[in-house]
Amino acid sequence: MHPETVSETFRRILAATDLPPITLRDLRHVAATLTHGGGGDLHTIKETLRHSTITLTSDTYTSLLPEVDKAAAEAAAALVPPARKAPAVAPAVGPSAHARGRERRSAPTGRSRSRR
């Protein structure tokens, strides 16, 4: 079939529906995006679309769905082991050394200071 015949038939079918306007090229893009979002790997998408390199596929389809990015980040974070709990530190008994120093300086000594 001639490509224009396919495109014209598609436009006629689309006009008979309540769907929003879309081109065949856009449908191809949507299919690739949904395949990626559904967990399809880039190599499969590359082969399906007949891209010459996986770089083209990667550059086009890896950042289209924020949900996919979030899911990948969460999956990676789940692989990180949880932090170990720090050993409990026994609370200090009595006033701190700093507080003891203040007590000594402010305590009355019983001596009077006289001026000469």
Itemize the secondary structure elements and their pairings.
Elements: H1 3-15, H2 24-37, H3 42-49, H4 54-61, H5 66-78, H6 97-106
Give structural notes.
With 116 residues, this protein is mainly alpha-helical. It has 6 helices and no strands. The chain has helices at residues 3-15, 24-37, 42-49, 54-61, 66-78, 97-106. It is elongated and about 95 Å long. The termini are far apart. The relative contact order is 0.06.
Provide keyphrases for this structure.
single chain; mainly alpha; 6 helices
The major β-sheet equals:
none
Strand residue percentage: under 5%
- Termini separation: 120 Å
What is the structural class?
mainly alpha
N-to-C SSE series?
HHHHHH
| Integer average pLDDT | 80
Helix content: 55-70%
Poorly predicted runs: none
Describe the structure concisely:
With 116 residues, this protein is an all-alpha fold.
